[in-house]
Amino acid sequence: MNISELARDKVKNLVPYASARLSMSGGSVWLNANENALSTQYQLSGDYNRYPDCQPPALLQAYASYAGVAASQVLTSRGADEGIELLIKSFCEPGKDRVTICPPTYGMYKISAHSQDVEVNTVPLTSELTLDLPALFAAPDSKLVFICSPNNPTGDLIPRQQIIEVLESFSGKALVVLDEAYIEFAPEATVVNLLADYPHLVVLRTLSKAFALAGLRCGFTLAQAPVIAALKQMIAPYPVPAPVADIAVQALSKEGQQQMRSRVQTILRERDSFSRFAADLSYVSRVYRTAANYVLLSVPDAAAVVSAIADKGILIRNQSSQLGLGQVVRVSIGSPAEMQQLKAVMAELSF
User: Looking at the chain, which terminus has fewer C-beta neighbours within 10 angstroms, N or C?
Assistant: First the structure.
């Protein structure tokens, strides 16, 4: 028997997520993965001969204090990606249930669903990049509704009133999952304060972006206790390595939070400066509004722009495969020096 024949049909036909690292390599300036170039050093204890706690109490309490919720409302996992997977595993019956997504948006919602034999309702955002509420409410029943705000890859915020309307409409019908991976760049837009009023609200968070810890793979799911309890039924025995928990607790300390906010301010300044610069380029027809650490640009030929910039050692990302976006590139905001290098390269291009 050919080993490939043993794989599930859903897996054999699944198109995997094309991460920035898999899609492109090389270069000396990486502005293609929405990482934070402004990193911090941490200390490790080195005492790692025992298995870690499944849910390290110090880490749960640290994140709960930071987010303004109770520790019982926090689950930590291997990035927010594992939170997405756990939600689908815990609440969707394979071959029966659906989830709803609103593209253009983060690709792992769809891939995680299909890998679990869960169908996907696709309700595209409007031309203004807001939720199409009539279409969303008319879609077939689903167990999970995924909303990303700030949205990846567009950077826009979903209006709070729309989120509330979605919560009201799906009360008793589905979980509404708000992906806030980039919320530190627009903290006023968080919906964590709605958790007390809506037991079906779930919020996804991560340390990968503003906290500059993408390599740590540490994420959080915030929800009321019954949702957290369901996720614990499906999570692996030791999902968060002890060194990860040690570093995460340091990052979430008072000093760590201050460092994070300082980095965010630097990134926001660089982002706004780059947006103004890009708007003056003859080959950029649109600079998307953004509340995150990246900027989306409409260009005549996205592949050509990415290639020309990569030839100079700088990686940005082609997002033209995203539904409804056309020819666009996404630029992650790097350090001031990196952004100066990018501007110098882009100023010399013509298309």
Answer: N
| Angle between helix 242-251 and 254-279 (nearest 10) | 80
Residues 6+ apart with CB under 8 A from 302: 318, 319, 320, 327, 328, 329
**pLDDT tens by residue, 64-77:** 999 999 999 999 99
Three-state secondary structure call for residue 254: helix
- Per-residue confidence at 21, pLDDT binned at 50, 70, 90? low
Output phi, psi for 137, to 5 deg: -75, -20
Q: Would you say 115 and 14 are in contact if contact means Cβ atoms under 8 Å apart?
A: yes
* Residue whose entry in the numeric block shows the structure tokens 């957290």: 228
C-beta separation of 207 from 248 below 8 A: yes
**What DSSP designation does 312 have?**
T
CA–CA distance, 99 with 118 (Å, rounded to integer): 7
Tell whether the model's pLDDT for residue 8 goes beyond 80. Answer: no
Does an H or E element contain 178, and which?
Answer: strand 175-179
DSSP-derived pairing of the beta strands 175-179 and 201-206: parallel
Amino acid at 301: D
Where residue 184 falls (left for φ over 0; alpha for ψ -120 to 50; beta otherwise) is alpha
Across the beta sheet with 219-223, the strand order is 74-77, 219-223, 201-206, 175-179, 144-148, 98-101, 119-122
Q: What is the 3-state secondary structure (H, E, C) of 68-102?
A: CCCHHHEEEECHHHHHHHHHHHHHCCCCCCEEEEC
| Residue 233: burial class (beta carbons within 10 Å; 0-12, 13-18, 19+) | exposed
What is the DSSP annotation of 195-223? TTT-TTEEEEEESSSTTS-GGG--EEEEE
